[in-house]
């Protein structure tokens, strides 16, 4: 793999969290009607339908399906955290057993893709998660923050990724690499509106800006990544 391709791949690792943040913020603000989940939009809808709301009240004791709070057990959170740490444990070669796929070649392809994107990263550290329920029973999204140490760069760089965890056909938790489906992306954006997640995104971006400001080598490195990735 030539240097330019390596840098392009590496750029995905270092700026993915920043891009994710921008996409989330853009998505939240550019189309409130389509999202249908911003509080302001909810209030407007409630006002417009106040006249007919009385005729469609839910009987006492009934709960709307979408209003149900899905609890994630402590044991499940522990299993997910263990899975995430295994996923980020080796930057050179992803442990294939943590990946979900029905065919061996699919696992190999996913592992190879992930490993390529991690070229140039020496290690991950201080891995932490905020775990949210997924769109279906037995699925979860782990908003994962960490610090990345790049080869030949002294300063560690904060990062953030969203890891999709599912329960496979054997009842075992595994990481689903492909989250490109529009419904999953919309679901991630909805979760990302929660204050807990938005606060983490802001923290990561603030720390990144501070790190770049303090480390000239890191600044030059990131600027080079942006140039070749255009």
Overall description:
With 230 residues, the chain is of the alpha+beta class. Helix content is 51%, strand content 17%. It is built from 9 helices and 4 strands, in the order H-H-H-H-H-H-E-E-E-E-H-H-H. A 4-stranded antiparallel beta sheet has the order 1-2-3-4, sandwiched between helices. The longest helix has 28 residues, at 3-30. It is globular and about 50 Å long. The model is unreliable at 1-61 (pLDDT under 50).
From the alpha carbons, calculate the radius of gyration and give it in angstroms. Answer: 20 Å
- Spans of at least 5 consecutive residues whose pLDDT stays below 50 are 1-61
Q: What is the residue-averaged pLDDT? A: 74
- Beta strands, count: 4
Instruction: Look at the helices and sheets and give the structural class.
Output: alpha+beta
What is the H/E string? Answer: HHHHHHEEEEHHH
Binned strand content: 15-25%
- First CA to last CA: what distance? 19 Å
What composes the largest sheet? 4 strands, antiparallel
The number of distinct helices, counting runs of at least 4 residues, comes to 9
């Amino acid at each position: 793999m030539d240097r330019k391709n390596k840098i392009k791949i590496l750029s995905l690792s270092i700026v993915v969290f920043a891009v994710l943040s921008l996409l989330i913020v853009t998505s939240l603000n550019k189309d409130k009607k389509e999202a249908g989940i911003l509080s302001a939009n909810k209030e407007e809808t409630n006002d417009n339908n106040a006249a007919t709301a009385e005729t469609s009240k839910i009987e006492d004791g009934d709960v709307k399906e979408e209003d149900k709070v899905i609890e994630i057990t402590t044991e499940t959170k522990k299993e997910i955290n263990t899975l995430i740490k295994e996923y980020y444990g080796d930057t050179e070669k992803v442990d294939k057993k943590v990946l979900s796929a029905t065919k061996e070649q699919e696992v190999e392809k996913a592992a190879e893709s992930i490993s390529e994107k991690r070229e140039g990263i020496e290690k991950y550290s201080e891995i932490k998660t905020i775990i949210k329920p997924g769109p279906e029973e037995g699925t979860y999204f782990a908003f994962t923050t960490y610090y990345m140490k790049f080869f030949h760069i002294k300063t560690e760089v904060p990062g953030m990724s969203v890891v999709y965890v599912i329960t496979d056909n054997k009842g075992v938790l595994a990481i689903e690499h492909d989250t490109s489906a529009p419904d999953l992306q919309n679901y991630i954006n909805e979760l990302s509106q929660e204050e807990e997640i938005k606060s983490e995104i802001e923290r990561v971006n603030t720390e990144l800006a501070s790190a770049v400001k303090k480390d000239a080598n890191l600044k030059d490195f990131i600027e080079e990544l942006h140039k070749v990735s255009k």
